[in-house]
Amino acid sequence: MTDRFAVTADMMTVADALARLEARLAPAVAAEELRLHDALGRILAEDVVSAANVPPHDNSAVDGWAFRRADLPADGCLPVVGRVAAGHPLDGPLPKGGAVRIFTGAPLPEGADTVAMQEDCRDQGQSVVLPIRLAEGDNARSAGEDISRGSVVLHAGSRLRPQELGVAAATGRASVKVYRRLKAAVFSTGDEIRDPGTELPPGCIYDTNRFTAAGLLRALGAEVTDLGILPDRFETIKAALAEAAASHQLILTSGGVSVGDEDHVKPAVLAQGSLDFWRLAIKPGRPVALGEVAGTPFVGLPGNPVAVMVTFMLIARPMVLRLMGAARSDLPRYPVEAGFAFRHKPGRREYLRARLAHMDGRLVAAKFPSDGSGVLTSMTWSDGLVDIPEERGDIAPGEMVDFLSYADMMR
């Protein structure tokens, strides 16, 4: 079996990891045709090409009177020869030397090229006095001004937000071809792990990572199967992995892939696939395990809850989006002012949990007091991560830093 994830470097930068993922992964889901009403949040599997101009005809941008600018006399007075409302065009072209009452969005009669706003006009019943300062084309919108026939308005690989659905509808499309939801399986392992809401015996802890990971996957649009908590038994884990691989396009877990006597995930994966550890030069985050189980991609995230979220956002998120057919997964970076001092040793990239605040017109990042990767409440306190690159040294208050928003990471 070809190992898509094998690497030889001892330590890998985030940029190198993302480049490897981009090169080695392809969409793992088929396409389907969905009505626009059902396509919100899906990823386009085709370019949407407009079959029509939008708007389909020249129309008025305001309520007022439409006329031919060349017909306007020095006194601005023209006879009113008709009325045009949206959906009710003038029957025939505009008579020479006349004006028509018109409303916003109504089609301009043939021959009309300018519209005067009603606030600037004097209605005299059978005639209207128009402002003579208007230039030809004022307050008139051209056919195809928004979208021209034959143009690509939406690109394959983009996620459909409400505004994309509106654009597709404007071109006359009632349905679009999108990728099916990625089917992902999530599980936890450990005899000490218990589900919330159950009794907690001595030496046991409640499972958090499974809920965090499943939530992150669902936020991206994946369909998640919760396999629950698997006991520390090789055969049970092996069977669960085989079953998940047969009906899913991704398997994701956290912890359990070390070399301890009770870490059975690693041998269970290797018994039916491949597994490699990517030693990422980041903090928080220990090695991320990537591999395959019977051809289905497998991701093993670190066990600490903060490291789970950080490595998911940096590595698993772009991997998931790639498998889902998304064309891009890069995150916007926002320059903000550091409201803290931080000692940083060059060579490893660090992600600091931070909250933003406006101070005298400046956007300032406050750092969470603790850097511990087990403090999950730091993720609810913060708005995102301050990214400290490998080559950068200590950070002083007032220096500019890059900020990655959780809101961007979850879409």
Notes on the protein architecture:
The protein is α/β, with parallel strands linked by helices and 411 residues long. The chain folds into four domains: 14-29 and 181-323, 3-Layer(aba) Sandwich (Molybdenum Cofactor Biosythetic Enzyme, Chain A); 33-54 and 146-179, Molybdopterin biosynthesis moea protein, domain 2, CATH 3.90.105.10; 59-141, Molybdopterin biosynthesis moea protein, domain 3 (Molybdopterin biosynthesis moeA protein, domain 3, Beta Complex), CATH 2.170.190; 334-409, Beta Barrel (Beta-clip). It is built from eight helices and 26 strands. Strand 8 and strand 9 (127-129) form a beta hairpin. Helix 1 (14-24) packs parallel to helix 6.
